[in-house]
Amino acid sequence: MRQFWITFFGSVAGVIAGALLTMLLLGFMLAALIASAAQQASEGRSARASGGDLVLQLDLRRDRLDQPSRSPFAFSEPLSVVDIVTTLQRAQSDDRVRGVFIRANEFGMSPAQAEEIRSALARFSGSGRFVIAHAQGFEGTGITNYFAVSGADEIWMQDTSAFSAVGLASESLFLGGLFEQFGAQAEFLQFHEYKNAANTFTEDGFTEAHLEATTSFLNAILNSAMTASSEDRGMDASTFRQRIVSGPHSAEAALQAGLVDQLGHPAAAREAALERAGGNATVQDIETYARNLAATPPATRGPVIAMVSGQGSIITGSGETGFGGGNVIGGDAMADAIDAAAAAEDVRAIIVRVDSGGGSAIASDQIWDAVVRAREAGKPVIVSMASLAASGGYYLAAPADMIIANATTLTGSIGVVFGKVVVEGALDRIGVNIEPVSVGGEFATAYSAQTPFSESQRAAIEAMASEIYDDFTGRVAEGRDLPITRVREIARGRVWTGAQALELGLVDRIGGLHEALEAARELAGIDADETLRIRRYPRQPTPMEALQQLFGLTAEGAQSASRLQALLELPEVRAALEARELAGVRGVQMRTDERVPR
């Protein structure tokens, strides 16, 4: 009886504590929402009250998503690349905005992000406004951070820093030797030799095909960045390349080589930007400026272009990952969004923005079908590829009217992979025994991590993967109007850059979101002087809607989610989870290595 009352009152106390913690959590969230709204209102009043000229400040040192986060609680996240492009576009017609002051990234960024931001800045500068960039050194060895700002009117660099941007590097993880040491066995089927996503588990180093493909796309990215940056700096390509690869340079040497224009601290560069803007100008973060634009009533006239966005691994279902979850593309969610855009009478064209290394073959095919049906409904579909649109990310793009990729986008990887890691031997070494029991057909244990594939299981899986590979290449051939023999020749799981893919006929144009909008205007027959209205599908949930979804979350669950999210941000944990995700996935996959060089 005593134990009963202890358990009873302990449960009651736990419920009360849980309720209090839940109320506290929701209180913090509501306070954050109110504070955010008040800050935005204050910023809007300040901007209107000042009435002066503005210099927008863009900080490229912060990691950015390609597209806005679906989470309404992401208060502190910087603008996505898509939002930077659209905000700079709108700023070009704002008489108050005189220029942009950039805090350059010191250590590296995604090549395609750098390329898209560089292009947006070039259009902004072409509107008669200035661009001044300041770097506290280009300390990373990759050229991408310099590539993003090479077209600035002035590049400042702190005189105590270094210019180490000499090329491009990538690192690949191989666990084959580790698995061998611990008695684990990686069993994967890959179609074909360039499909390297499983090499992490099966190899202890580069295969010949893996190294060839990696070296090829790294060289292609470097050449694209070198060519564009040399033009920005007014140098011939060979001279510029020699000055870059001969680094690292001191700040003074970088100035003498013409790689930067001024030496000084951030305060001096910011002051130079204000002087160029005029006496009454103020600096405003681009995030603040974008929030003020969002508070402005949207245009009610003009043709509508639908924007369907997806980033992350492709999975079946809605793609909802819960509180603090990462970004994924749900087959249901993206297909439904495309269907809704196709059904809207006032939508003239659909842009599908993709940033994904692939995932589920079934979900990729589901989105492919939605793209096909949208075209059959008379809506032009344009795919805009971000940093990565490969494997399943390319599959869903194949039937589009037009595919647009940045020169440095990683795409292609037309192939499939399936397998598992058998841990029976590793568990035996530590005295753990897991014995599977099954009834019915022999294939029932095919996904078990305790037993290797039997001959019949391997044959069945190979047949399924082969069929999906044939479907993949067939649909690429149909969508791209290429002979199937040519598709199979250039496929084999190989990753290409956007520039390479253009030559192969896998994409139609080089460019980013801006070029996708222009293509939508072209295919929909919209006049150049008409203002486009961009409508996002699906609609972003409001903070209150998200709060309502959280009411069922216990305080213990919320606290655990918060701790887990912090843990998941650790680089070593993220790498381990990526490996575990591929090892434990069910079904045939269209997936490529998502590590983008920086």
UniProtKB/TrEMBL annotation:
CDD domains: S49_SppA_67K_type (cd07018), S49_Sppa_N_C (cd07023). Keywords: Hydrolase, Membrane, Protease, Serine protease. One of its GO terms (molecular function) is peptidase activity. Residues 131-273, 374-526 form the Peptidase S49 domain. One of its GO terms (biological process) is proteolysis. InterPro entries: ClpP/crotonase-like_dom_sf, Pept_S49_pIV, Pept_S49_SppA, Peptidase_S49, S49_SppA_67K_type_N, S49_SppA_C. The keyword Hydrolase applies. Pfam families: Peptidase_S49 (PF01343). It is found in: Membrane. Belongs to the peptidase S49 family. This is Protease. It comes from Glycocaulis albus. The gene is sppA.
